[in-house]
Amino acid sequence: MYRYDEFDHDFVQARVAEFSDQVERRLSGEITEDQFRPLRLMNGVYLQLHAYMLRIAVPYGTLNGKQLRMLGHIARKYDKGYGHFTTRQNIQFNWPALSDIPAILADLASVEMHAIQTSGNCIRNVTADHFAGAAADEVADPRPYAEILRQWSSVHPEFSFLPRKFKIAVTGAERDRAAIQTHDIGLHLKKNAAGELGFAVYVGGGQGRTPMVARKIRDFLPEADLLSYCTAILRVYNLYGRRDNKYKARIKILVHETGAEEITRQVDAEWQELKDAEQKLPEADIRAIEAYFAPPALTGRPDGDTAVKVARLDSKGFSDWLDQNVVTHRHPDYAAVTITLKGIGEVPGDATDSQMEAVADIAEKYAFDELRVSHEQNLILPHVARADLKTVYDALVDIGLATANSNLISDIISCPGLDYCALATARSIPIAQEISQRFASLERQREIGELKLKISGCINACGHHHVGHIGILGVEKKGSELYQVTLGGSADENTSVGEIIGRGFSSEEITDAIETIVDTYLGLRLNPHEIFIDAYRRVGPAPFKEALYAGEAKAA
Amino acid sequence: MKILTANRLGDGIAVWYAHGGWAETVDHADLAQDKAAEDRLEAIGAKAHADNEVVDVNLIDAEVVDGIVEPVRLREKIRAAGPTIRNDLGKQAARAA
């Protein structure tokens, strides 16, 4: 994985020193909250309901054991013994004292981590496919390009005060696991007919109060042009993005109001000025960054097949976990493992200090010291020898992280909601927990099959409800929480925004409503292989509306 | 009725104005029953903000239940108690102990 060079070290250290001084001056009253607020936000410090919140960047979701162990240490020493992994592949701590944040940032810097640009109207943490470098279906690891974008976008003088925040995601596989079409810029790394690497470029995706699917504005951008083309997009956005209205300030609104064709023309015009100048990436530089992401030396472990077969017979739990949480690796003797942070009835994305430390140990011993955070709020071990899977499984069982529910209905994305968030209008986590408990039986979950359920506690959609196969949006209505259901959303290569199915449900009704939707699907699917989203796309909302609301119409 | 709430500058912990200071629980927060009392609380909040004791100062609706002050809105109830999903955290944790 990427290692800081001297420049990175100096840059992060300088920022720790600078922000420590700012915190000190704030605590002594030398600077006001109005002066301090933008400074703290640039360093990932928010004020939430109960306390400050610190959001730490995990660039393209990649961590090593030492880093995860440090996060566990921070959770224990400065927080309340846990952290929350987010849909942006970052981690948040919910209870740090402002006075401790300089020490936390110093600890983070010691393991090449920071909280820079995790807030503010700048280019945020670049996210990537969590199976990058391991996936059998990718043309190349997308993370070197994410790292190039990180270096380019860090304290970029021109793009530090954009009309609004700006999110870039990159995938190297046809099967999109990075939700690139819901990002301001989505990059799909691919090869052209000549075998050269480049990107399909999508612009203007986003969720929030105005969900939009990104538009493809270029089918193949040579890799050398990555920065010049992104600069051109950002320039057009920086010039014409709406600064008059916060709610219309994202690039998705600009793309929508201007039209994809015209935006493409404007970007191209800008790009012509840039493409052959200093931002053209030298081949040697790309390959040098790529070298940091060189895959671990995966030695042949042909004993894996037998080991897995024997262990399967021995343990149903292992067998279920293998079927659900383990995916094919590009090397036949290896596999990528999803550690779901979605135990039945648990808080989605939360991990305790000791769980983080134990997972760090497992990664170091059995996974070439590599970890990922997925945007679905899980942890990933991207390279595990199949021969070691049972050992890894047993170690995960010991720490309560072996729930075999990856991609099933209890593998829920949920924002923190009103239990923590100052912006939330309703709680999300208790709804996630109740649904998880209702569908606790893994057998029943597998019978239902792949189903992406996503919950947000306000219109800002941090819980990605718009692109859930089933989405739930919590709002406040007449002083109570009300949950609106959307169906048919998806965040993969066939991205779609879900449709509101009808009137909302109270917190007491919502789990029953979800069960009704699931039962309706089970009743109408063509066969067990037709997953929820495919069935919904085939039949549309009518049968679900009928099941949810027909009784009411008759009663009225 | 209104009460005055904020978060403490140094640690961000939610606090309520009570008996001439900032209390860590809402239970005995000073109640404003009329406009004049609200203005008085607001002035206290503005001064505490200016003096860098607290941030995010707000006057919020409250009621008295069995002699104890309770916020009216769910958001403020959760601020006053802690996350509803973790009874071991926030103000409710100290209360249970």
Strand percentage of chain A: 15-25%
How many structural domains does the protein architecture of chain A include? 4
Tell the overall outline of chain B.
Answer: globular
Give the domain tally of chain B. Answer: 1
Number of strands of chain B: 5
Q: Please report the distance between the alpha carbons of the first and last residues of chain A.
A: 62 Å
- Proportion of strand residues of chain B: 25-35%
- Largest pleated sheet of chain B: 5 strands, antiparallel
Shape of chain A: globular
Radius of gyration of chain B (Å): 13 Å
| H/E topology pattern of chain B | EEEHEEHH
Whole-angstrom Rg of chain A: 23 Å
Stretches with pLDDT under 50, minimum 5 residues of chain B: none
What class would the helix/strand composition of chain A place it in?
alpha+beta
CATH topology of the largest domain in chain A: Sulfite Reductase Hemoprotein, domain 1
Helix content of chain A: 25-40%
Give the CATH H-level superfamily of the largest domain in chain A.
Sulfite Reductase Hemoprotein, domain 1
The pair of chains with the biggest contact is: A-B, 30 and 25 residues
* Largest β sheet strand count, sense and barrel closure of chain A: 6 strands, mixed
Task: Give an overview in words.
The complex is a heterodimer of chains A (about 550) and B (about 100). Chain A is α+β, with helices and mostly antiparallel strands. Chain A is built from 18 helices and 21 strands. Chain A folds into 4 domains: about 5-110, Sulfite Reductase Hemoprotein, domain 2 (Alpha-Beta Complex), CATH 3.90.480.20; about 135-290, Sulfite Reductase Hemoprotein, domain 1, CATH 3.30.413; about 305-400, Sulfite Reductase Hemoprotein, domain 2; about 415-555, Sulfite Reductase Hemoprotein, domain 1, CATH 3.30.413. Chain A has helices at about 5-25, 35-40, 65-80, 100-110, 145-155, 225-240, 250-260, 260-275, 285-290, 305-315, 315-325, 355-365, 390-400, 430-440, 440-450, 510-525, 530-540, 540-555; strands at about 45, 50-55, 60-65, 80-85, 90-95, 125-130, 170, 185-190, 195-205, 215-220, 325-330, 335-340, 350, 370-375, 380-385, 415, 455, 470-475, 480-485, 500, 505. In chain A, helix 1 (about 5-25) packs antiparallel against helix 2, helix 3 runs antiparallel to helix 12 and helix 16 (about 510-525) crosses helix 18 (about 540-555). Chain B has helices spanning about 35-50, 75-80, 90-95; strands spanning about 1-10, 15-20, 20-25, 55-65, 70. In chain B, strand 2 (about 15-20) and strand 3 form a beta hairpin. Chain B starts with a strand and ends with a helix. The interface of A and B includes residues 49, 97, 419, 420 and 424 of A.
